Amino acid sequence: SVAESSSASGADDRFAKSAKILTHRPAPSPSRIPGADRGELTVVIAVCASDGGGWTTHAHAAPLPRFDREPTTLLVAAPALRQTNTNAKDVAWPATRAAYDDVKRRMAPEGIGEIILTPDGGATLLEGLTTNLFVVRTRVDMLYHGVADGKSSLELVTAPRDSVLPGLARDAVIRASVAEGLPVREEPVLASDADCWTEAFLTNAVRLVQPVREVRWGSSDGNSSDGAREERFLPDPWGSISNRLYRRIVASLDDDLGPPGSCARRRDSGDDPGL
Question: Can you give the three-state secondary structure of the chain, one letter per residue?
Answer without folding.
Answer: CEEEEEECCCHHHHHHHHHHHHHCCCCCCHHHCCCHHHCEEEEEEEEEECCCCCEEEEEEEEECCCCCCCCEEEEEEEECCCCCCCCCCCCCHHHHCHHHHHHHHHCHHHCEEEEEEECCCCCEECEECCCEEEEEEECCCCCCCCCCCCCCCEEEEECCHHHCCCCHHHHHHHHHHHHHCCCEEECCEEHHHHHHEEEEEEEECCCEEEEEEEEEECCCCCCCCCCCCEEEECCCCCCHHHHHHHHHHHHHHHHHHCCCCCHHHHHCCCCCCCC
